Task: structure prediction
Amino acid sequence: MFGALEAGGTKFVCGTGTGPDDLTLASFPTSMPEATMAAVIQFFHQQGSMEAVGIGSFGPVDRDPASSGFGRITSTPKSGWRDFDIAGAIRAGLRVPVGFDTDVNAAALAEARWGAGRGLTDFLYLTVGTGIGGAAVASDKLVHGLVHPEMGHLRIPHDWTRDPYPGCCTYHGDCLEGLASGPALQARWGAPAESLPANHEGWILEARYLALGLASLALAFSPQRILLGGGVMRQATLFERIRAELAVLLNGYVRAGEIVPPQLGFRAGVLGALVLAEQAYHALSTPGSNA
Ligand code: ADP
Ligand code: ZN
Result:
């Protein structure tokens, strides 16, 4: 049995099991690190003995195994969590190997194994919610790079005449996340995204912005498929609008890969953390492997 933790800005979701069919879930509100981690560790203790635990965390994180900061949440504005050693807290509390990555990388791993990424060697997974996050699987492997991809912060053209809203990213203002996240929709239109009707002009602009981001990503990665999840994508008319905008932007030059919803819903993150646990477990039994 493996343990899984999806560490989110509003709640921590814990799971135990081996996959979608035997997953036991529990969830705890994200308060200060000590209290939250105590609840998480107590839950895992109650579930019995674990071979390894995987963590998919909100970020940015340090997941470079060679770094002294490995396992930490780094530059979050979230009170109390900046530089918190989340992997260390689990390792100290449970004395098991710990796998660690971002929440969105974890979700992509789960979609690759059990969801809409099955059988693909190259795909992208983006979540459009409170923020915008993205993961790339390229040649069957998650892309990590120097830190980890932060696709939500791509710069996209911003037509100030058509859209005078300045954007809400605390780092960049009008990056993709600043213009197209749920909070950006709410700030621009003065109402929560879920309350905007399907024919609201906001969705035309939203599809345009997301397609601008996806055009760059499709050209850079050439994915077979692009999975779009997160709360904002519950506005289902977005899918067709984004496909149409993307076709206009690429203008027949190359194919972009199909744009589809993920299949694992709210369980993607915690299931991905389970895959991270499994990888940490196998890395231990195969020295030299680098999961
Ligand atoms: P988080 O990103 O915090 O994990 P979600 O992926 O659920 O959470 O995204 C939350 C965002 O999604 C909010 O900004 C909310 O306004 C927006 N949202 C939720 N439901 C809908 C909906 N049906 N249509 C459009 N936007 C929605
Ligand atoms: Zn940004």
Summary: The chain has two domains: 2-106+266-283, 119-262.
